[in-house]
């Protein structure tokens, strides 16, 4: 994500992700009140420390209000059942390149917790054994640990030539992405199973797609990303009118600012599951039970009313990834072209056509 708090930063362009928090808040509070096993907070825990982790915190702008209501909800539950209120510790976790400086320089002064940074890939172990009481993640579990190998193999039926993400009409590509996503979610759960106490809870907000939607008149987050891919291909294949004579022009394709082979080899490390796909993966876990699963219609889509706002949102999320692969010289031109394509599409301009969903999952760690 783009660092800092400037006009192109994630801080200034993450209202879409923020949208579902208000919808999810009462659900998460209710699950804490009814499902969190508070005995585990004090069992073998002489200091009475309650630990919470946000896996994929980014720069904290959307994380802080969630950490606040989670600590308040746990605090309310404990104050009726224990004379001693624990000290809250919150682990803010993200990749090592995350802008933790912006996060810690903007921590709320009235927070109820002590804050710690935990850099690293959350698909692996990050925290001490049996130390975590509540885990949270929002808009992070769509990230893959790696691009599926088959989609970059020219000899594979899943070679994703000319695209930067899977599409519904490419079955082999979709299957390769889903297989990688399944492995990554299973790895995430195995790591959390070691770190979490029995009876602890995890709540996830996972961006996804509905089982059925009409790509002719509707769109989802993958649609947005595939449109960006078309911009990269346009920049690799540009149309030139060559003047041959006074009355004759010849249309010729020439190599653009990007290598077409470079674009063909680029794929985004994201997967946006349908609810039944995610549920099937979670049900294979031997360490967690699914306590609740809700499909939320993200009101954040109405916070991006213009093509400019939407282009800025995706730039804040993708610029660093694109720059690492293609270089910084193309970024302004790429997102200007992207903005123009969004503006020219009556489908994309109407937020009511956005059928992207948020999947709220609450898991409970089984007691051994």
Automatic annotation (TrEMBL):
Gene3D superfamilies hit by this protein: Methyltransferase, alpha-helical capping domain (1.10.1200.270), Vaccinia Virus protein VP39 (3.40.50.150)
Keyword Mitochondrion: no
The keyword Nucleus is assigned to this record: no
Superkingdom of origin organism: Eukaryota
Key words, A-Z: Magnesium, Metal-binding, Methyltransferase, Transferase
Family: Belongs to the methyltransferase superfamily. Type-7 methyltransferase family.
Protein name: S-adenosylmethionine-dependent methyltransferase
Species whose genome carries this gene: Rehmannia glutinosa
């Amino acid at each position: 994500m783009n660092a800092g708090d400037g006009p192109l930063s994630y801080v200034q362009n993450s209202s879409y992700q923020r949208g579902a928090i208000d919808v999810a808040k009462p659900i998460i509070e209710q699950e804490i009140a009814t499902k969190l096993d508070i005995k585990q907070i004090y069992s073998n825990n002489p200091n009475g420390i309650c630990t919470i982790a946000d896996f994929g915190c980014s720069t904290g702008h959307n994380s802080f209000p969630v950490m606040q209501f989670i600590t308040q909800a746990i605090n309310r539950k404990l104050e009726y059942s224990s004379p001693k209120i624990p000290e809250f510790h919150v682990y803010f976790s993200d990749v090592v390149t995350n802008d933790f400086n912006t996060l810690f320089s903007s921590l709320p002064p009235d927070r109820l917790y002590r804050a710690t940074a935990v850099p690293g890939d959350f698909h692996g172990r990050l925290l001490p054994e049996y130390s975590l009481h509540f885990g949270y993640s929002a808009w992070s579990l769509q990230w893959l640990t790696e691009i599926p190998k088959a989609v970059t193999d020219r000899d594979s039926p899943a070679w994703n030539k000319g695209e930067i993400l899977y599409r519904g009409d490419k079955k082999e590509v979709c299957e390769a992405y889903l297989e990688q996503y399944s492995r990554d979610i299973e790895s995430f759960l195995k790591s959390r199973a070691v770190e979490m106490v029995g009876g602890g809870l995890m709540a996830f907000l996972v961006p996804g797609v509905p089982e059925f939607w009409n790509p002719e008149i509707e769109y989802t987050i993958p649609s947005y990303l595939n449109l960006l891919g078309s911009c990269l291909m346009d920049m690799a294949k540009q149309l030139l009118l060559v003047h041959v004579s006074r009355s004759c022009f010849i249309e010729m394709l020439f190599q653009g600012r990007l290598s077409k082979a470079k674009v063909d080899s680029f794929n985004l490390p994201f997967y946006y599951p349908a609810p039944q796909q995610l549920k099937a993966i979670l049900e294979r876990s031997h360490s967690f039970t699914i306590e609740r699963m809700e499909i939320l219609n993200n009101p954040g889509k109405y916070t991006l009313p213009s093509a400019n706002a939407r282009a800025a949102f995706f730039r804040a999320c993708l610029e660093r990834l694109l720059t690492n692969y293609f270089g910084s010289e193309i970024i302004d031109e790429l997102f200007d072209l992207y903005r123009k394509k969004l503006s020219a599409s009556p489908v994309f301009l109407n937020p009511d056509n956005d059928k992207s969903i948020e999947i709220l999952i609450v898991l409970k760690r089984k007691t051994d």
